[in-house]
Automatic annotation (TrEMBL):
InterPro entries reported in the protein's UniProt record: Fumarylacetoacetase-like_C, Fumarylacetoacetase_C_sf
Span of domain Fumarylacetoacetase-like C-terminal: 28-228
Protein name: Fumarylacetoacetate hydrolase family protein
Keywords: Hydrolase, Metal-binding
One matching Pfam family: FAA_hydrolase
Molecular functions per Gene Ontology: acetylpyruvate hydrolase activity; metal ion binding
Signal peptide stretch: none
Amino acid sequence: MASFVIPAPVVPTLPVKGTDALFPVHRIYCVGRNFADHAIEMGHDPNREPPFFFQKNPDNLVPSGSTIPYPKLTKDVHYEIEMIVALKTGGDDIPVEKALDHVFGYGVGIDLTRRDLQAEQKKLGRPWDIAKAYEQSAPASGLVPASEIGHPSTGRIWLSVNGETKQDGDLNQMIWKVPEMIATLSTFFTLQPGDLIFAGTPAGVGPVKAGDVLKGGVANVGELEVTFA
């Protein structure tokens, strides 16, 4: 019987609220500039351009309540509060009208970004991986099944730093809605059970420093909190 030549990696998971069950994570897709006001604050056109995506790694996830180190090689880490969409089934070329059938549930995440490194990569025309997909760059709450809350399309999405509100928007401000994200992603990738989608952030992104406490939430979905050591 064959065996692994090194220890097999642990499967990253998110808890399912109210149960002892775990949701195994396959991939993490993130939608860029999906709120018009955030596109404007980042210096881009807020009009409805085709969506674009980047990835984080499943092992970038860190649970709510964690204390995380300030990341290395940066002096400008930014927070971006987002709703997480968790898929229970996948496929290719999923029709928009069938897309929500593939959703297991929803959660809350923070897309942490080494903004100074991202700016350098943009100038050089290079990928954003070193800015987006580093260790502990994806704090995430537990998931709430869609069977319990439905499919949120409106509701407050917010983030505070040390108790001061920094981001405060509504899911109805998303340029590309959840079914459209899923349908578009499925033209580029074969989506799989366990895939997560970070669905974009409203305006108000900004820097954090050591000692800061980040708390955020999405109405009817949940909240999360992390502290920078």
